[in-house]
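Last lecture ended with a question: if I hand you only a sequence, what can you say about the shape of the protein? Today we answer it with a concrete record. The protein is 2-methylcitrate dehydratase. Below, first the input exactly as provided, then the predicted structure, then a couple of comments.
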Amino acid sequence: MIEHDVRVHPSSDRLSRTDQLAWKLAEVAADPVEVTADVADMVINRIIDNASVAVASVNRQPVVAARGQALAHPQARGAAVIGTAPDVRVSPEWAAWANGVAVRELDYHDTFLAADYSHPGDNIPPLLAVAQHVGADGNQLLRAIATAYEVQVNLVTGICLHEHKIDHVAHLGPSVAAGLGTLLGTSPEITFQAIGQALHTTTATRQSRKGEISSWKAYAPAFAGKAGIEAMDRALRGEGAPTPIYEGEDGFIAWLLSGPEAAYTVPLPARGEAKAAILRTYTKEHSAEYQSQALIDLARRMRGQIADLSQIESILIRTSHHTHYVIGTGANDPQKLDPQASRETLDHSIMYIFAVALQDGTWHHVDSYAPERANRPDTVDLWHRVTTVEDPTWTERYHATEPEFGGRVEITLKDGTVVADELGVADAHPRGARPFARSNYLTKFRRLATGVVSEPERRRFINLVERLPELTAAEVRDLTVTVDEVKLADAPEGLF
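The predicted structure:
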């Protein structure tokens, strides 16, 4: 890996394009290095993972609305929309939009946490949609996904957005554009312009994940994927981007991040070096914000240590800065303690999540968020007894070379007894008690697709995706899942 220093330059410096971060990302996209077998295997896992959570959400309102918008933009060549009949094709940017919302809605697919946050599986819907539209084969799609993961993971490693209240999709727009550069075999010049446009148009605040969290949380990455496709389309037509997009004196770093004196270091693979960043990412066993994954597992473990949950006086979670301030009491969001809160808000309340996981000993992507579940009196009582604090030790562990995203829980009973336990990583994490492997991804797919997708259709999709590197262009066009055991809900009326 090569570490690239990135800082603000005044316009008078006339910073060479080849010295700009966007150009270096474009060069990664243009590198024809082949994908290693372990990376190919993991890409297949993540396509299965995305399909799992997408089919489980096909009739949830945000997904229905996004699908309705996509279906209003049919195109003969086009791309598939998850859930619909195989002959339904829409314009690729709208397919990316609908499928991106379906993948993200349940907050249930892969993650990478470092200096910032990310869900790199959000790259797959736009890349697959364009691959289907242009007639790319499986190996082209595979290489594109590897590039997108490489770019996003390394941007997340080097540049923190959330401390400036910028949403993490600002790293997703550029990674989608870079992946498209690999998919289409565009020159670094074209990809450079697409990356710049994608960053410029996908920068948004973190209010989408604060206070009363709405369905836009699912739409935000789909918007970035759609914007990345549109940016590449314009770049292919010869249109340019603001330059330097990262380093300019009125640019991204100078005014949206740490200011004109700031400096960042972004690691990127050298030419010919394998793009293996996807191997540093991890998926979710539970449908909840990633920093709750280990704490859900810990709640399930601690449940057996307490005979009577009604005897709990208080629960203290000692955890990292990120967890305390994003999903804990450090966020100072009263909505995180409100039984009437949206599913998206409850998904970002570790107080609610830990209480329910402790009571139920399990976690379900629908039942655990149901209004009747959130309003259960004993749950509300226990939920409101949970507080979090930042523990410097856990913040250090969060930022370690081998990061940990859990915490230590101290449960005080009414008789004064304290039951304490801790867990660093989720059971499904690569360093966890039960690391996710292909069999786990297949089980997740079967479980979430049962009753929605017929067994022959499930088998057809799995047989196809497991041959990804050798798929023909025609087979890539069939790389979707048709819902055939439930009726797709009709979209509400809109503009289109």
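Comments.
1. The chain has a mean pLDDT of 96.
2. The beta strands are 2-7, 74-79, 263-268, 312-319, 386-390, 407-413, 418-423.
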